[in-house]
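Hi,

Apologies if this is the wrong queue. I'm a grad student, and the batch job for alpha-1,6-mannosyl-glycoprotein 6-beta-N-acetylglucosaminyltransferase from Oryctolagus cuniculus produced an output file that my downstream script rejects. I'm not sure whether the problem is my script or the file. Here is the sequence I used:
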Amino acid sequence: MVPAPCPARVGWPWGSLETCVQGCCRWGWGQPSARPGWGGHGGPRRPACREGVGAGAAPAQARPSLQWMRARWTSDPCYAFFGVDGTECSFLIYLSEVEWFCPPLPWRNKTAARTPPKPLPRAQAVFRSSLSPLLELMGSGKESLIFMKKRTKRLTAQWVMAAQRLARKLGDVRRDQKQILVHIGFLTEESGDVFSPRVLKGGPLGEMVQWADILAALHVLGHSLRVTVSLKELQSNLGVPPGRGNCPLTVPLPFDLVYTDYHGLQQMKQHMGLSFKKYRCRIRVIDTFGTEPAYNHEEYATLHGYRTNWGYWNLNPKQFMTMFPHTPDNSFMGFVSEELNGTEKQAVKGSKAGNMAVVYGKEASIWKLQVRTRLSPAPPLSVAAQWGPWGSPRFCPCD
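Support response: The file is valid. Your script probably expects a header line. Output copied below for reference.
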């Protein structure tokens, strides 16, 4: 048997990563820019059904979905929200105009297929020199948000200088202002938010550092941001209909890009219905260590036993943005390193030791294990200096 080819660098069907930024990922029978015949957040208009319209009006490819609707249309209130009332006609209109499982009904074409209005000229992005609006946008109430705001405020002067340098470099280059949603999923109560209670207790801060820098970068570049740290805020900004998440969004996605993490990705999939597939090319996943294509490709991962809680999303590998450049398959996002002024540089240079070692352990158990292993009551750093070479031959604090 010939082994299945690895999908590492196969041409992805979505083309360029930016292909869908200005519109949506078109698929099925749906229209990419509007859902004619239905209202927005205020509630959709009830479908105008023709008397006597039944299953015979459904094309062959829609009949399995029609059968499913007959049995399950009461399983989620969102179907009633879109006008489904148990009649064959309402099933057909829903399947053809909301979920796009079949082409529009011939007798609905003249009223439903309207010419979409011409898009308005896009606003241009202008570099910003103040981070105060961003600090207000980030909110408060969580230790993690307080930490992120402190970092952003402390680096304000350096962000402004960096923006000025980039503005001089780009000159008169025009940049469209993008509408961007930043949903920090790991800070939501629904995900458990294990980070906030540990901010002041030696817990991991790397993810919060990166998110603070991402927000600051997008802000100074001049883009329009929405920041959400709760599921309720996410649903409101996306236009999620009431119910259990089985129906598409009530309006076209109003964001060019969505930055989130794996928790947020799962929440979006759970509440966007089929719209998740339609708009997934606009998502950018902040993924600390990256995701290799073998774990991202659902079919390949399933066949080869690579399924994990965080994999098989079937995204373009470049949509995963890492903290460190682990793999060329993903995009490198990184984080900001501070710049020292002249006085600080001289102070560091004057006190710099010739030989240094960095000992890293983010959990107390890491240090306790080494102390117990060497049966020494000495502090962890003393233990590392005395016994580290025996535990790791490449580590010698004396060299």
